[in-house]
Amino acid sequence: MTHHYREQIKNIANKYGNDRGYLMNIAQDIVKEFGYISDEMVAHVAEILNIPMVQVRDMVSFYSFLPRKPLGKNVIRLSNAVIERMKGADEVGKAFEKELGISFGETTKDNLFTLLHTACIGLSDQAPGALINNVPLTNLKPADVPQIIRDIKAGKNVSDLPQARVLLNLKKEGEVICAPLESGQAIRNALNMKPEEVIAEINKSRLRGRGGAGFPTAMKWDFCRKQKSPIRYLICNADEGEPGTFKDRVILTEYPDLVFEGMTIAGYAIGAKEGIMYLRGEYAYLLDNLEKVLAKRRHLGLLGENICGREGFSFDIRIQLGAGAYVCGEESALIESAEGKRGAPRDRPPFPVQKGYKNEPTSVNNVETLCCAARILEKGGEWFAKIGTKDSTGTKMLSVSGDCEHPGVYEVEYGITIENLLELVGAKDTQAVQVGGASGKCVAPKDFGRRISFEDLPTGGSIMIFGKNRDLLECMHQFIEFFIEESCGWCVPCRAGTTLLEKKFRQILDGKGTVQSLAELRRIAQTVKAMSRCGLGQTSANPVLTTIYDFADLYAERIKEEDGKLLTFDLQKAMKVGIEASGRTMEGVK
Ligand SMILES: Cc1cc2nc3c(=O)[nH]c(=O)nc-3n(C[C@H](O)[C@H](O)[C@H](O)COP(=O)(O)O)c2cc1C
Ligand code: SF4
Predict the structure, then answer these.
(1) Given strand 135-137, what is the order of strands in its sheet?
(2) Measured in angstroms, how far is the CA atom of residue 541 from the centroid of ligand 2?
(3) DSSP assignments along 525-549, one per residue
């Protein structure tokens, strides 16, 4: 490394006040400048920040967007998420391989291109998609590839390519998220109340978190507010990494003011002066506009000191960009990451509301939850509580993708049945609907009368539709591969268990499994679910656990009897035989 590089790295670290808490930003800026962060650079950063080198290396090695070795001048990251593959990502991948003369994971000899796979990039409604130098390309076709490569070689900016176009795809506007808001109105209403009254208003609305778990928002804010510490933080979770989810992309593009309004109200309610929006690295292209909106709000007195003229109420927001790790959506991993560390989930208790960011009480809320909060302060808790169902008030932004005529984002009232939703999005001949992403539930036609709601079928927003022509179990297998790729590796049941699960599942899919293999598959799945440390591992076996009964026929088709013939059978009965043979009981089945 030349002296010149050392100087640049010094300047980058200096920009962040040589603060260890900004290690991730420092590494990201180094990658932006040099394309990678080498061992030498890692050592230099450690020296400047006066921390052990292993700490820097540990963090850097965790994130897929922080390469340790030089990549090509142009980095192509093609999404290989399930829906993308259904829509032809494999064929597009082959076209890239052919055109560049390399395989995935490789760089061309002239160092112009590196070709990589990446997980869901939040564009399943316009798949197949890719990020080239962080610019999103959509609706790719194999025939587009030669021209794309020619154009880039000729020096054209990736953002000027015809495929560099993200459609908004907002297909149904509801009354909570997709309505106009006069900036500052909800904040002014909140400031006319005491923080406790704001929380009481949210309580009246019975708002529950939209990030997946459905925790009552008022209760979370109340817990946070009541902590003794004088410093508290508010974090907006914009990591949106669940496969098939892209509703936050639409909200952040179309309604950023509503999100920031909600963050400011949350800050007032819990008593925080600082808010952080944790934005997934894949959405880096949204950053410029979000920063502009923040600057505008500062100018309007909606952020900063004495907001809306209220003496003593100060609140500001910074955006922390992630670096390509799904587990960072889990709130404690997200906090670690925002502190500039690797995104490993923390043990709980303590919960983030007790000890979160910088060990201070922290409320982590989803993008959509914060939008709802702003609207509640505008229109009242009672108004909100009248929408939806008893236990699931309000609306839900759904990201719909897969086999339907109109993929996109739909704001619907809670309580809509799967059947009605399928009608709305133009889906016919549906074999299954995956509700809640890879970690969610695979719903069979017999259950299409069930409702999207916390009390029935909860979802953070992902709805993936599989037509009758799809090999459903292959799709489930791809979900498991996703979890293997994204496991942070901290605990054995997740790290090793998901691999074991994949192997057993593959054996069955390849027609090499027996009835006993099925019982073993179920047992591994139960163990991974029960023993994993965080939500990622605990839900990683869902693709098996939620299909093994409702889609028993698909398993049965691939199971061999001892004489080698395929079996048609009663799965419950067959599993009983398998389980008894392996010395277990049927307890807990189904
Ligand atoms: C592996 C994993 C990934 C997650 N990803 C997200 C995410 O992308 N966005 C989100 O809001 N919540 C995500 N969550 C849930 C968060 O941990 C947390 O519950 C949520 O941000 C709380 O916000 P809410 O109360 O507004 O729902 C994830 C959880 C797990 C276990
Ligand atoms: S369950 Fe998986 S992702 Fe979660 S801590 Fe364990 S290894 Fe990491």
Answers:
(1) 113-118, 74-79, 130-132, 135-137
(2) 13
(3) HHHHHHH-SSHHHHHTTHHHHTTTT
Q: Is the CB of 237 under 6 A from ligand 1?
A: yes
Rounded distance between C-alpha atoms, residue 220 and residue 353, angstroms = 7
Atom index in ligand 2 nearest the CA of residue 532 equals: 1
Q: How far apart are CA 111 and CA 114, in angstroms?
A: 8
SS3 category, 16: coil
pLDDT digits 0-9 by tens, 386-414: 999 999 999 999 999 999 999 999 999 99
pTM score? 0.95
Nearest ligand 1 atom to alpha carbon 329: 5
CA distance 218 to 144: 50
* Domains of the chain, CATH where assigned: 2-60 (no CATH), 74-167 (3.40.30.10), 173-385 (3.40.50.11540), 395-468 (3.10.20.600), 473-556 (1.20.1440.230)
- CA of residue 93 to ligand 2 center, whole Å: 30
Cβ neighbours, 10 Å, residue 273: 15
Protein residue with least CA distance to atom 20, ligand 1: 211
Distance of CA 67 to the CA centre of its chain: 21
CA 538 to chain CA centroid, Å, is 16
For residue range 573-589, list pLDDT tens digits in order: 555 554 454 444 433 33
Averaged over 172-188, what is the pLDDT? 96
Q: In what order do the strands lie in the sheet with 441-443?
A: 170-172, 408-413, 395-402, 462-467, 430-435, 441-443
- 106 Cα–ligand 2 center, Å: 29
